[in-house]
Amino acid sequence: MLFNSYEFILLFLPIMLIIYFVINRQGYHILAKSWLIIGSLFFYSWWNIKYLPLILTSIIVNYSAGIWLAKTDLSMAGRRRIILAAGIIFNVGLLSYFKYADFFITNINALLPIHLTPLGIILPLSISFFTFQQIAYQVDIYRGNTRGEYSLLNYSLFVVFFPQLIAGPIVHYWEMMGQFKDPERKLPRFDNLSRGLFLFALGLAKKVLIADTFGVWTNFGYGDVASLTLIDAWITSLSYTMQLYFDFSAYTDMALGAAMMFNINLPINFNSPYKSLNIQEFWRRWHITLGRFLRMYIYIPLGGNRGGKGSVYRNLMITFLIGGLWHGAAWTFVFWGFLHGLALVVHRIWHEMGLKMNIILAWFLTFNFVNFAWVFFRAESFGEALTVLRAMAGMNGVVLPQAWAPYLSKLGAGTYLIGEIAMSQYLTQAIPMLLIFLVVVLTMKNSIELALKFKPGLINSIFIAIIMVASILSLTRISEFLYFNF
Q1: Is residue 113 domain-shared with residue 129, that is, in the same domain?
Q2: Are 173 and 222 members of one domain?
Q3: Residues with Cβ < 8 Å from 129, sequence gap 6 or more?
Q4: 215 with 334, same domain?
Q5: Where does the pLDDT of residue 245 fall: very low under 50, low under 70, confident under 90, or very high at 90 and above?
């Protein structure tokens, strides 16, 4: 079930809210949590019920390991390390089998004179997110950052709470579960309902009206990369850059908004990343909870900033290679992670040398690096990515649209560059929209900033109604969120 679907908006979310608060009002708080768990598992099973046993098994094993770890005395350091290692191996093994088995088989077949048959496994929805979240839970218990949860009910709710189940944010146990114990959060609060609906509506509009529009041009360009020339290629790459921005921003808004309606505040996961002036700032703004996970549970255990410069650079590269692989079982994702790791190393060296850069130039370089790297993130292969990049560099030729011929002739320009470009049917829409929404993401307040200042009232109610109606009427082209694939 998608956030941007009739079933979710008109049935599932209202029914979950009404029954949850009715049960809580009657004082049956355990039953209310049970209702959320049942509803969340139904939400998860909507795509493919055969993966329901998978997430239930993951919950039971991690819950049991967490109890064992929490009950083991701190003085028994060796036993605690073994329990933690076993828990991490289980989670990584589960993720490796379902997400990377065929990737490993394909690469073994390429390297060795053998032929292993791919398993043809379909990636279970959200496995990357609920696996990382449970790894963080176990490590937090081991480090003493959180107490173990002895209630299977509470632990299950922590894992499957539907607003954050499919694509995050990746939540720490202490960030969310304490809120469910707060008596003031067990009853509906008009401010949270209205602010949550406002965020949800913004996200829905971003997804349906903006991201999916850019997606049409992205899919068209990547559907025939060999035909791309300079203008087509830049429209294609920038369309994906904007599609991914508004798609992920939309999901984050809708996840935080839906949770807020239940009086639960999830951590901010997206904070205007295209305003960044360097790559380090970008990662402090983009997929914030994933960046936090990589820093806390991979970069710091590897040694973090400790040791010599070479060790720090190595730790950065390993962290982002893993981060790239986490996004998908393909070498293009690994290379994308490598590019970002390398950029962070270059940024650190630049900073250590005490060098400064003009703000506009810093933004321009950061944005274009991110746009360049997204090509590998989106492409199906290195060959496809390199074809797009060659076209962006003008190596596939420079062809101007036929429609521009009258204007160019008035300027006395030749017509040897005039022809039919691949994106000609979208040109009059794509270029203005790219310019308009680039200005929007660079100059306007983001959804979180708007939500913080949101106050219920007639004008805001009309605004919410308008964008909700416009978005719902556009649901004829329902599409998945891009991060559902990771």
Answers
A1: yes
A2: no
A3: 164, 165, 166, 167, 168, 170
A4: no
A5: very high
Name the residues annotated as catalytic.
327
**Residue 408 banded pLDDT, cuts 50, 70, 90:** low
Q: What pLDDT score was predicted for residue 415?
A: 46
Range of the domain at 337: 277-378
Angle (CA) 50-54-56 rounded to 5° is 110
- One domain for residues 102 and 214: no
Residue 427 has pLDDT above 90, yes or no: no
Residue 328 vs residues 125, 321, 323, 486: alpha-carbon distances, Å: 13, 11, 9, 6
- The number of domains in the chain is 3
Single residue among 133, 160, 187 that ends a domain in this structure: 187
- What pLDDT, in 10s, does the model give residues 440-467? 999 999 999 998 888 888 888 898 899 8
Which residue is listed with tokens 């649901």?
Answer: 475
> Could you tell me if 3 and 251 are in contact, meaning their C-beta atoms sit under 8 angstroms apart?
yes
The last residue of a domain, from among 330, 349, 378: 378
